[in-house]
Amino acid sequence: MSTIDIRHPHSLSDEGARTAIAEVAQKLEERFEVTARWEGQTLYFVRSGVDGAIELLPGAVRVKAELGFLLSAMKGMVESEIQRVLAEKLG
Q1: What sign for the dihedral angle of Cα 60, 46, 42, 90?
Q2: CA distance 59 to 12
Q3: Model confidence band, residue 18 (pLDDT cutoffs 50, 70, 90)
Q4: Which InterPro entries match (predicted)?
Q5: Which domains are delineated in the chain?
């Protein structure tokens, strides 16, 4: 298993950041068939081979994910895509 741990700063309001992360979750659900759910300020997502969370922090978000064996081989590509989407949604 491989772990992804990304912290991305932003200047959005708490509500703006939550809206942006909700849009990211919708794309994850559509594109990768993950199941996502909010618990407080954390969005948890899961599917076969991936288990993770996006935590809303003051002025930042933190993405943590555990990749299964097959996705571990593509860790660099997965991290790059996460960083690209965060930059697009959060600035």
Answers
A1: positive
A2: 7
A3: very high
A4: PHA_gran_rgn (IPR013433)
A5: 2-90 (3.30.310.50)
Q: Quick one: CA torsion of 81, 41, 15, 66, rounded to 10 degrees?
A: 0
Kindly write down the DSSP assignment for every residue of the chain, as one continuous string.
Answer: -EEEEEEEE----HHHHHHHHHHHHHHHHHHH--EEEEETTEEEEEETTEEEEEEEETTEEEEEEEE-HHHHTTHHHHHHHHHHHHHHHH-
Task: Please tell me what DSSP assigns to residue 26.
Answer: H
In angstroms, the CA 17 to CA 23 distance is: 10
Distance between start and end Cα atoms, the chain: 30
Gap between the Cα atoms of 19 and 12, Å rounded:
10
Q: What is the pLDDT of residues 34-43, one digit of tens each?
A: 899 999 999 9
